[in-house]
# Entry
Amino acid sequence: MDGIIRRVLTVGHCGPDHQALSRLIESRFPARVEFAVSLAEARQLLAEFPYQLVLINRVFDATAEEGLELIRQIRNHSDPQLQQIPLMMISNFESAQEEAVAAGGVRGFGKADLDEPETLALLKNYLP
# Structure
């Protein structure tokens, strides 16, 4: 391990889901998980800090904003740093995963799959 703490941002999740994602990641990877409630807050944090991975809820809990919209906004941004960040949709719906990838995100996983070995293997691609 290189000793570098990765920054991960969860966006739009409810408190319990954010906590579950944080436990999953922080217990297995050298990472710190932070939280954004809305599109505006996510954009602000992404502009201020270097994140290695963003985990986006399909529909934001507090604001009902669409996670797909954040992927589109970031992929259409002119900042090359933002273009490099993996944007992962967290949804059990296959159609949401496909839409996220088509919009420039990376394949994610569903909340029902948090304890699956495939989920850890997927996260290892972004949090070495």
Notes: The chain is about 40% helix and 20% strand. The CA atoms of residues 38 and 79 lie 20 Å apart.
